[in-house]
Write a structure and sequence with these properties.
With 105 residues, this protein is an alpha+beta fold. It is 44% helix and 14% strand. It has 4 helices and 3 strands; from the N terminus they run ααβββαα. Strand 1 and strand 2 form a beta hairpin. The longest helix has 16 residues. It is globular. The model has no long low-confidence stretch (mean pLDDT 91).
Amino acid sequence: MELPQVAEGNTFDERIAYLHAQTHQPVVVTLGSKGTYYYAGPDDSGIVPGFKVKVVNTVGAGDTHCGGMLAGMAQGLSLTESIQLGNQLAAKVCGMQANMLSVSF
């Protein structure tokens, strides 16, 4: 939903290309249970599969996804491994009434 608000272009691909050209960094777009699309360059893009859960509450899912990705990258995981960690943690948050993970995730 936010992509059209921050990127120029008429299509998904045009908006992704715009953001990548502006930042020269990977562009990551969450797609809910379908996973997360990433674009790190012409030869490095795709979808990291998501996790299907019974959605109870989505509050905090985006922040959790970002935090999971950053934690993975800080631990030396690849971009796709970091996205997968973000997907996993965000799915856990969506399946909980409280929007907070326990320390033992």
